[in-house]
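Objective 1b: paired records.
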Amino acid sequence: MLDTMRENGGVGLAANQVGSLQRVAVIQLPEEEPIVLINPRVTRREGEREVEEGCLSIPGYRGLVKRSARVHVRAQDLSGREVRIKAEGDLLAQALEHETDHLNGVLYIQRLASKDSFWKIEPGAEAEVAQPQ
């Protein structure tokens, strides 16, 4: 999954995006080590912000979406140990919500700030999830 995500310029990828029914997500922020999350669930959300997002499942488009300002996630790592992650107002918080949404059958276009906040990007434009603004 990490190779697929990297080859396509992504920041995260959920298993169901590559045809697996496992509840697994991977996230790799620029200049960071990859995170593998098994059975991730958001246990707490606080605040709201609007951020620009794209998705490997909907190539060539971007949108302005509503995301939480702070998220708490619980999951297991590859060794089966519990992992707890707290993220606030950054790309990690955004990616955690985005990938757990995928595993719950929700696409980012379902969280658009408005009907007009979805657009086609020019060919060759950067396709990965943008830094929150």
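Objective 1b, second protein:
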Amino acid sequence: MRKDYLLTPGPSAVPPEVLLSMARPVIHHRTPQFMSILKEAHERAKRVLLTKNELAILTSSGTGAMEAAVANLAAPGRKALTIDGGKFGERWGELCDAFGFERRTIKVEWGKAVDPADVAHALEEDSDIAAVFATQCETSTGTLHDVKALGEVVRGTNAALVVDAISSAGACELRTDEWGLDVLCIGSQKGLMLPPGLALITVSAKAKALVKAAPSKRAYYFDLLKALASAAKNDTPYTPALTLIIALNAALTRMEEEGVEEIFKRHTLLARAVRAGTKALGLALFSTSPSDSVTAVKVPDGVDGEALVKRLRDVHGVVMAGGQAELKGKIVRIATMGYCGRYDVAIAMAALEMGLAEAGRKVELGAGVRAAEEVLLGG
């Protein structure tokens, strides 16, 4: 018998009570019953995200929220600044190109975080920049960007700060209003502990004014003004993924019971344990600014990274993620986001030890588990 463990940076594991909530009979979405559920979801999500900004729930993956942000802020003559330090920072640039945003891009070496001074310099040089598109956790490299510092840089300008928090919300420290994050894009299948299919987006008054001032509309399904207007009435412009919204309520209830600050602490502890465990196995971190939601470690010389990830999945039942694009076969990404606890880390380290040993790498069995446990016991 084999038991599977999901430790990928999306989809992540889903708690049993959240899965069970989706087994309830389907109801109609234009009813007071569903509107009450949607209202609760909006209110709970704002509390978990530490925001009083407007919020809409979209039926899409997190990329739908990213597209909504770009499509609604784009306008002739407006410029964008994108930060490209991995596959998902790259996606901001691709979206801006698709919607006619003239863009300037700050290229960041993969595995490193952007220097906020570079963003400040770009904004000083060009006052026509209307939006800065950033990523909090660059999932492809396991890198955390300092969006708090970016908020301080952008706050005093005419630009809106738009943040991809898809793999950081509900895991990494994130203080939407306090840090001045104008638009937040979130996906359901990571820190929020749901299956894929929902996107959440928050919009500040500053960002909404920029959307309203756009002379031409480039969005229909992802029209944010329509979505926010409907949300204010506890409704949606189009048919919602109502089963997932019911599940979102269940997941957010669990998160509120744990407490936002405790969620931050738990993810920091789990990530520290993973780093200690992998270091004890002689593995190096890929990122110089590691995230608390996903840790990227370098595959040692002489080991086939793609074969290692495949063996961990197919033989050991422990599903981690490999590298993307230029990092394919070079890193392993271990997620500690959402419905993840101490024993998930211990299992990840044990599987990694055995997988490396089977790949011919000399490792001290138990060393990674022991190092991780020492961190976990220390709290």
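The longest strand covers residues 129-135. The two ends are 33 Å apart (CA to CA).
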